[in-house]
Hints:
Order of helices and strands: HEEEHEEEEEHEHEEHEEHHHH
Low-confidence stretches: 225-234
Strand content: 15-25%
Oligomer: single chain
Helix content: 25-40%
Strand order of the largest sheet: 10-9-8-11-13-12
Number of strands: 13
Shape: globular
Amino acid sequence: MDLRILGWNDHFADHWKINAGRDLRPGRVVEEQKEAYRVAGEDGEMQAEVIGRLRYEALDRSAFPAVGDWVAMHTLPAEGKALIHEILPRRTKLSRKVAGERAAEQILVTNVDVAFVVMSLNADFNVRRLERYLGVIRESGAEPVVLLSKADLCSDTGKATADLVAVAPGINSHILSARTGEGMAALAPYIEVGRTVVLLGSSGVGKSTIINRLLGSDAQKTLEIRSGDERGRHATTYRRLFLMPSGGVLIDTPGMRELQLWDADRGLDDVFEDLAILGSKCRFRDCQHQTEPGCAVLEAIADGTLEPGRIDNFKKLKREQQFLERRRDAAAQAEQKKLWKRRHRALRHHYKSQR
Length: 355
C-alpha cells in the first residue's frame, strides 16, 4: 500500500528519520476498539497491539494510539499482526473531556486536515452546540466545515443559514442531502489524495449515510431516526478510517451526546473573536459585560447587532474551561504519584531479583 494515499507526508517522514536502522515500519491506525487496533501500512491492513515502553509509561488512555495516528511498528505479515512501539508526533489532535466526573482527556482522532461538523436541518441544528464544536476544532489545528444535512426533510433552510453565518462568519458551510445526492458534489475538493477528513456530530444526523454516498457503497450501517422526537440512534459504534476511491481519507465517528471541552482556550478565543473586538471598545479594560456603563458588548446587544445568547455561551464555555483546568492540575499530580510508585515497585523488584 502506498503510504501517501494514507496521508503520509514530509512531516511524518522527517520524524521517521530517528527510526533508521531499526526493524520498524510506519503504519496508520485505521480502527481502535478498547486497545484492540487495526493498522494499515506497506504490508496491508492487520491487527495490532501496543507493547513495550509505550504501554508501560502511559499515564492514561490519551498516551495510547488513536484513529489517525501514525505509528512505528514491527510487522508479522505471516500472522497478519503488528506490534506498536511508538506514536509519531501528531500534526493535529481532536480531544474532549471523558464523560463523567473524571478530569481526563479522550482523543477522538488525530492528524486530521478538515473536520466536517454535521448537523441535520430537520431537528438537530443548534448554534450553541455549533460554537462548542468550532472551539474544539479550532484548538486542534484542523479546518472546520459545517454540513447542514437532510435538506430533503427541510422546506426552509434560510433561517438555519442565517444563524450559521451569524455565529461562524468566514467558515465554509454546505447544505446537502446524502439520500438524494443534493449538494454532495461540493465536498469533493476537501477530500484529496494525502488529506484526512473526519465527520463529527450527534447521532442520527446522517454521517454514515454521507460516508456511504462518498464511498459509493454501504460500508457503514445506517439507522432511521426515532419518529417520536426525531432523535438519532447510534449506527456507528467506533471510529473507523476509510480510503476514498478517488483518493483521500475519511474518518467516521460515533454520534456524540456531549462534547465537553478539553484544553480549548485558544480555540474559543478564535471562534468568539468578534466579542474580543467589541470588548476592546468598552470604556473599562476589565469590563465583564454585565452592567458596566460604556460596555460595547451590551450596546451591541441593545441595538440588535449581537445575539444575547452568544455572549452567554462564551461565558459559559470559559467557566467550563477554567473549572476543568483546576481539576486537571489536581488529577495530573495524582497520576504522577501513581507513576512514581509503579516505577519504584518495579525497581525494588529488579534489585531483589539480582540478589
